[in-house]
């Protein structure tokens, strides 16, 4: 389980410290957060799912990727194809778009802008991988938008 941006490792923390760190997670209204597993050597996305506090606690104690959908489940529990967790990182900024705007508003330096944009691109690439969308597909959409105003472009989108 891993995130981009300013990340803090959860390994090596005592249980009191882990609880404090878990208190900082930006849980949604159902008590869930996105959890992404990556190959430790290649960085390839293995799986994306949701985790609640109990799933993260179980992951850190068993070192097996644990998720939550309608109940707690350990990846590989039935197939024996476990995802063994080497480390858990929490995305400490938890809101890349907000950080980008803050970087602009506070007129921060190039290094900070590059760092925040790296977070955005990382999360965008994770989304593309999870949804099996090629970067070229995104470029094709952008090419179609270049000659249109924002109003024209939005009105030309297909209704879903």
From TrEMBL:
It comes from the Eukaryota. It catalyses: 1-(5-phospho-beta-D-ribosyl)-5'-AMP + H2O = 1-(5-phospho-beta-D-ribosyl)-5-[(5-phospho-beta-D-ribosylamino)methylideneamino]imidazole-4-carboxamide; 1-(5-phospho-beta-D-ribosyl)-ATP + H2O = 1-(5-phospho-beta-D-ribosyl)-5'-AMP + diphosphate + H(+). The keyword Ligase does not apply. Residues 47-96 form the Phosphoribosyl-AMP cyclohydrolase domain. One of its GO terms (molecular function) is ATP binding. PANTHER family: HISTIDINE BIOSYNTHESIS BIFUNCTIONAL PROTEIN, HISTIDINE BIOSYNTHESIS BIFUNCTIONAL PROTEIN HIS7. This is Phosphoribosyl-AMP cyclohydrolase domain-containing protein. The lineage of its organism: Eukaryota, Viridiplantae, Streptophyta, Embryophyta, Tracheophyta.
